[in-house]
Amino acid sequence: MTATYLDHAATTVVREEVARAYAEDLQRLGNPSSTHAFGREARRVLEESRESIAADLGAHPTEVVLTAGGTEADNLGVVGAFHGASEGRRAVAVTAVEHPAVLDAARWLGTAQGAEVTELAVDAEGVLDLDGLAAHLARVGERTAVVAVMWANNETGAVQPVAEVVAACAAAGVPVHTDAVQAVGQLPVDFAASGATTLALSGHKIGAPVGVGALLARRDAALAPVLHGGGQERGVRSGTLDAAGARALATALRLAVAEREEETSRLAALRDRLQDGLLALVPDARVRSAGAPRLPGHLFVTIPGTDADAVLFGLDAAGVAASAGSACTAGVTQPSHVLLAMGDDEATARSAVRFTLGRPTTERDVEHVLAVLPEVVARARAAHAPRRATAAAATRLASAAGAGAR
Fold this sequence. Notes:
The protein is α/β, with parallel strands linked by helices and 406 residues long. The protein has twelve helices and twelve strands.
């Protein structure tokens, strides 16, 4: 049984207050779109939840489009913006370090819908190169349907310059979508002040159940629906409205926002303790995006001479849950596309381990990780060495064969 859970960026525990509110409304009868008394009561719960969500994120209630989670919200923000754009706007730009929900949606637009897709470069810290964005806008700004830049990266925790992106895009008349799934509850997020056109959030990162989220969309946002049906949610997100899920999301968000300053200070201190201890035990490990503003609960490291799979297996066997990056890639460990975009080679990108702390994390959890880490890393390096030697020998043989053929 895993005793220490440090994968809160993947999902975190449903809070007790949220579970109680959710359970209560799961028992409530009535479709919020029905006009009888049962439906009206369900609608009341849903609209009060919408108002609460809006108030906590600096939005107007009409700007809150309820979804089944962050992935749907991101797809609506990117695909919906592309199809809703005026004629002639066939270009899409996203940062190269976006979550797959944004990156793959943009790539699908390129392959299946004829979009001209640009993946904007980042620097060695994983932060968007604003000069590259300016060059894109100068080249095809008048043909760009949407620019997507995440508020904070799900792997490294690096915070992106959303305000600067919005300012540059506004001057070119280009809408901006921001994936704030990791930022909400950990950073101050004010939708109106951000100037973004759309913003995605997800409930299960802040203590709500899996399967509920929202897209904040300015009232002048030109969005085409991704789901078609009854025309709920401003006509851009059809489907029976989930009053219980909306209440759970609103409750979790209210608690997260109210506790944010105190909690993020606590998490940052624990993260720094884990970081300092890890570097003392594994001096050649490298903390990624350490030179950029980071989320307080994120620690993303590369450990030379290891594969992340071996490190994670060893940690799991020792009762520690961590990850190699995004948990949204069908359970398949791949080289971190974020690190590849930051300039790392594939071997380094395969050695990345992510520790993400959350509200349940304690000092004992940090000490547990540090206690088991040396042996875990030593075993992972021992397992990695023969494979590395075999790969090197194969490369030498292939090179020799090539030379002989010439």
